């Protein structure tokens, strides 16, 4: 509802500004004898509106007060010294200039609120998203939700639960040798290899998007995880994923580590990831 209201205010304010500009242009060109006079004040009115857009309404109001006071003083002085009547032009610019400022301020206010709401929605989407947008794999948010369910099933039926983590060796160096498209192909290939090496009741996650680390929740013990690791390595070698890149030969290998779940030593899902990640140090 807020987004809709701010959008409506922004549209109305923008249309009001356009209508006022058209009226100002028509009024300026309507009297050839006062064209220069009206053109100058048209530019002053637009300038104040532009300054309001890039600053704030307080600055715009102060400038309008200064303009009205200065212009009003000039009109009164001119009428007294020359004995002439105050013309329509004076009333017009004293009315239109503040209206232009108000229209721009309303447009700016609504636009900034829309931007703030857009950023908030993006932030919420990022926090609540459970799938990685590039690989369609479950991410760490989904992992933190699922691990409690997996641990509960493990305890209830007496089935061991193990987290297997996978990384690409020397990924930082490899990134500088291959194109982004090839890196995407590599990640997709390893994902497919990992998925084909586990059972349907196991789950795979992309736990670290920047450092590209996969996590596999397996209903098995540490010995069973070793079998899965051997299967993944064998399938990875047979798949022959991205062996060459232009003139450079890219020798790819994986680092793996596994940690069996223990509710006494693992306090949170993030702690489980951190402890499992440490097991990568033993895979040299």
Automatic annotation (TrEMBL):
Descriptive protein name: Diguanylate cyclase
Source organism, top-level taxon: Bacteria
Signal peptide: none
Annotated transmembrane regions: 12-29, 35-54, 61-80, 86-107
Keyword Transmembrane: yes
Keywords: Membrane, Transmembrane, Transmembrane helix
Domain GGDEF: 129-280
């Amino acid at each position: 509802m807020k987004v809709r209201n701010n959008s409506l205010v922004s549209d109305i304010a923008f249309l009001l500004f356009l209508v006022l500009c058209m009226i100002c242009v028509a009024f300026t060109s309507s009297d050839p004898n006062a064209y220069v006079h009206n053109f100058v004040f048209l530019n002053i009115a637009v300038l104040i509106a532009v300054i309001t857009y890039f600053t704030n309404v307080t600055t715009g109001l102060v400038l309008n007060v200064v303009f009205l006071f200065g212009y009003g003083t000039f009109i009164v002085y001119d009428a007294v010294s020359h004995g002439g009547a105050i013309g329509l032009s004076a009333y017009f610019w004293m009315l239109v200039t503040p209206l232009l400022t108000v229209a721009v301020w309303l447009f700016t206010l609504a636009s900034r609120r829309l931007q703030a709401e857009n950023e908030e929605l993006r932030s919420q989407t990022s926090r609540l998203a459970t799938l990685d947008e590039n690989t369609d794999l479950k991410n760490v948010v989904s992992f933190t939700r699922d691990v409690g369910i997996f641990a509960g099933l493990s305890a209830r039926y007496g089935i061991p639960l193990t987290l297997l983590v996978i990384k690409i060796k020397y990924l930082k160096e490899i990134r500088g040798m291959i194109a982004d498209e090839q890196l995407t192909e590599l990640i997709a290939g390893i994902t497919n290899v990992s998925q084909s090496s586990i059972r349907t009741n196991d789950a795979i996650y992309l736990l670290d998007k920047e450092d590209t680390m996969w996590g596999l929740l397996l209903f098995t013990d540490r010995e069973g995880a070793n079998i899965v690791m051997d299967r993944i390595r064998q399938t990875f070698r047979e798949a022959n994923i991205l062996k060459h890149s232009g003139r450079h030969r890219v020798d790819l290998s994986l680092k793996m580590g596994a940690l069996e779940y223990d509710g006494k030593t693992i306090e949170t899902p993030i702690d489980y990831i951190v402890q499992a990640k440490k097991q990568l140090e033993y895979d040299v």
